[in-house]
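Duplicate of #3305? Posting structure anyway:
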């Protein structure tokens, strides 16, 4: 019995060793399956976390695109026309006014002398001289004759220059504002330029929103204030444009093709 039971011990050891060798092979598929599931979970979590970011990016791009479409008219601004650099100053106007008053006073004196001669208060030769002086003074006030002896513009010329420049500026403002108004829509870009929030622009913004801005610009100061706002809006527009294209590039890098888009054209 003992001799017969000895060969079975080595056989049992060999079977145990063979089982130990085959055990890792049987467990390998389970390990690979577990790693694939973990990788799938990570990808699902990444996709889930990127979805809110994509929605936020799309909302931001839509907002920037709307700003660019509504405020693109700031690029049509004519600085020289709105700056009114050739505007006659108050000193020039006062000097021309004194010249006009002197001309009127001289004409009245000459006319009074002539009329006095008709009534017999002064001799006829003095009345005749007064009449001649009156005619000469009137001729000197005619623009064609005035240009012969002086290059200075008359008070009437300066007034007409002011009115013409103001009229052209108002026409340009009406073109920029259009039918929907411009600067009140550009106020949405205040996050990119805090100067647009200044309270001194409040009245202009209300007029622009009510579509009556161009008609209310009756003074040069109003036009200059409008020009200042347009310059600040132009700065904000360039920053919005830069942020929009940076957002487009980031969306392309992330693979969000529906987020990346060109600015909408104005209809």
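Output from current build:
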């Amino acid at each position: 019995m003992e001799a017969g039971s000895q060969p079975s011990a080595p056989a049992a050891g060999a079977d145990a060793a063979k089982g130990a060798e085959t055990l890792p092979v049987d467990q390998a598929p389970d390990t690979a399956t577990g790693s694939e599931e973990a990788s799938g979970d990570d990808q699902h979590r990444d996709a889930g976390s990127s979805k809110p970011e994509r929605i936020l990016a799309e909302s931001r791009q839509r907002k920037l695109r709307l700003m660019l479409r509504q405020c693109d008219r700031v690029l049509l601004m004519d600085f020289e026309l709105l700056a009114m650099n050739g505007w006659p100053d108050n000193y020039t106007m006062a000097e021309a006014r004194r010249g006009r008053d002197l001309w009127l006073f001289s004409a009245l004196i000459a006319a009074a002398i002539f009329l006095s001669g008709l009534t017999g208060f002064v001799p006829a030769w003095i009345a005749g001289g007064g009449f001649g002086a009156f005619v000469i003074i009137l001729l000197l006030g005619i623009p064609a004759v005035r240009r012969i002896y002086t290059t200075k513009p008359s008070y009437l010329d300066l007034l007409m220059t002011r009115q013409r420049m103001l009229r052209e500026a108002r026409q340009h403002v009406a073109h920029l504002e259009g039918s929907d108004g411009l600067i009140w829509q550009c106020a949405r870009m205040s996050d990119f330029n805090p100067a647009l929030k200044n309270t001194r622009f409040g009245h202009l913004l209300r007029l622009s929103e009510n579509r009556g801005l161009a008609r209310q610009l009756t003074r040069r100061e109003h036009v200059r204030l409008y020009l200042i706002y347009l310059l600040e809006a132009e700065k904000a527009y360039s920053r919005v444009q830069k942020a929009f294209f940076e957002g487009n590039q980031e969306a392309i890098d992330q693979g969000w093709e529906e987020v990346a888009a060109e600015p909408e054209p104005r209809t």
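Confirmed duplicate; merging threads. Residues 70-85+164-253 form one domain. The chain is about 75% helix and 0% strand.
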